[in-house]
Amino acid sequence: MSEVEIDREERVAILKKQEQLAQFQTFTEETAFDLGSVIFGIARAKRAPVVVNIRTSDRVLFHAAMPGATPDNDNWVRRKSNTVLRYHQSSLLFGDTLALKGREINPDMGIGLMDYAGHGGSFPVRIRKSCVVGAITVSGLPQLDDHRMIVEALGLFLKVDLPHF
């Protein structure tokens, strides 16, 4: 897929609904491996040159790269997952919310572009009725496609119909 024109406010509503529906009962190292394998399978089928990463705040639980992914994708993974782990929302939702306010990531927020990114491609691992415990991240495609790959995998993995844009 490519970048699709959609009203940003409408996309924010869809992103919030995705996060509300895509929650886990439990999340273990095995869950991370199984989910990461689903995402990697989608990437392989699409021949997408991406890095797939699932992490908690203190360690990596899954990491794999497809042919064509570059070391720069690992840096994007780090920045996007930092955003999710700090703000407990997808990196795309964070970036869109800032944009609706006419803002961008800047040092006045206590964060900088070297360590955070408001671009699509990282999604929170949220335990139902609890909190965010990790981040699922894809990097290597246009930002909306990175996000879509995660949502596609979450829908399959969690057996839930997630809204799309």
TrEMBL record:
Family matches, as InterPro entries: PduO/GlcC-like, PduO/GlcC-like_sf, YBR137W-like
Record-stated family: Belongs to the UPF0303 family.
Name of protein: UPF0303 protein JJB09_00565
